[in-house]
Amino acid sequence: MTRSSPYYADMDAATITAEELLTSGPRNKRCELIRGRLVVREPAGARHGSVTAELAFQLMAHVKAGSLGRVYAAETGFKIESDPDTVRAPDIAFVAEERAPESDPIGFPDYAPDLVVEVLGTDDRPGEVLAKVGDWLNAGVRLVWVVSPERREVRVYRFDGSVSTLGERDRLDGEGVLPGFTCPLGELW
Questions:
Q1: What is the mean pLDDT of the chain?
Q2: 44-187 sits in which CATH class?
């Protein structure tokens, strides 16, 4: 998720495509493309990084042990809208084995993951977070976890429109999207 307020590149400029972002977008910057507009984001802080790494480790171990699909690390862009293009980059993504291509594309996959994890930074704005969750769900993501290290909670958004909030003593559950996965939230902090 955003680590600080995003800087929208020249809003009067023409929109760009996912291909243009991939081939000639800014280097050494974290970017997303939202309806053709480039959004540059600041780097994440240490707490964000450690929580993301811990959860990615647990997800990867579970997915590999069961040959369930693929886990993608932070900043992997997924093209989830076209004309104008939207390329979103979650902190962690999971694609189920039955949907994963035989080999990963060199560019941005043009499909949505099954599970997306967004870990909040201290400067994330609620409206931006909800917009990103909405983009993911509209693209077909079945489960979105918005992890708040500061509040020590996770909001779970489902494709069916239901939402729940889990506290520090609860367990994160992969539900039908990632069968058998559970993680006590206390282990993340």
A1: 90
A2: alpha beta
